[in-house]
Amino acid sequence: MGFTSTYSCDGLADKLKILLLAAGARNDAKARPGACASSLGRPDKFARADLTFYTLSPTGGGAAAGGTPVDGIWRQVAFASRNPRELTVGDCELVEQFKSTVLPFFTTQNIETRTTCIPHQESGSVIDLKFQSLSAAPTTDEHGRRTQAHASG
Fold it and tell me: Which distant-in-sequence residues (6+ apart) come within 8 Å of 95 by Cβ?
């Protein structure tokens, strides 16, 4: 729940999907509006969303239970105002919550945060979160085009 921005449940779900994909979740990530007091499209002080997503985790040389091994790379990720494009300074508290509650589900390293959120105002708030996320390495198809590997894990 943010103090500066109030989201509708579907708006919160849309924003969270953007953060999931930018952080390195697989492209089939889902963020669905949760049970909200307000109807869709209306701001709700207690907006919630349900997330379903897959990320990579190191296997230590063997296949993870139920997953297919893929080559991984460390990809640099940065969240700031307008990075991703849909992120604004009003989303500062959402980024803080994402960092503390969702980012631990990712395999990350070198997390640097200089995010400063001032409740009830955008002036003086700064989104500055950087980290490396373990992501599937691009592969090439039979025509030599780069593609993204898909694996569960």
Answer: 19, 79, 87, 115, 127, 129
